[in-house]
Amino acid sequence: MTGPGGVSLLAVEDLDVAYGDFQVLWQAAMHVGAGEIVALLGPNGAGKSTLMNTVSGLITPRGGRITFQGARIDGLPAHRMVGEGLAHVLERRRLFPFLSVRDNVLLGAHSRAARPHRAETLARVEELFPVIASRRTQLAHTLSGGEQQMVAIARGLMARPRLLMVDEPFLGLAPRIVQEVSELFSVSGTSRASASCSSSRTWSWHSGSRIVATSWNPAGRS
In CATH, which of 2.60.120.560, 3.30.1600.10, 3.90.1150.10, 3.40.50.300 is domain 4-213? Predict the structure, then answer.
């Protein structure tokens, strides 16, 4: 799926990424269309998180091109990405453990574009994730792993992004919770695009997603 005029919402082309002298990605490429759900699958160490971290500005690529909504974003700092309409839920949730559920969620609406709609977006998020309302005053670190993951995704949605990226959304979750969270991607993705990366493929077959596979470094590369 592509956006107006056949342009992808996100396009990654010929992306090279390295940590010092150790190269992780060689000419990586993927695209995400408006309203599309894309699952980035691959084994541990294949560069899935590195690709997401590069798209969101946490890592500067060595080469290649990243285009979002028709504009180049490779090289932009991470703090600019939310304002551009891109939200990133990092692996292992990264909540503030001693803040309440409500405070963690509201932190997602700090950008200039999201702040005026904070009450409206919060109401929508609480509809998608009832735990946000029922546990609003509870400290984040006292929640179960599945509940913490829902809070982290809700915080990302509070930014009202055009693209929501979620790294390892089901890591350590029970199968029942995996099913619940994967269904929420379909519901929340009706007006935005979603991209997630995972080492597990089972959830993606019944979430309506398009799958992009990654693999370990090609033979002969160093």
Answer: 3.40.50.300
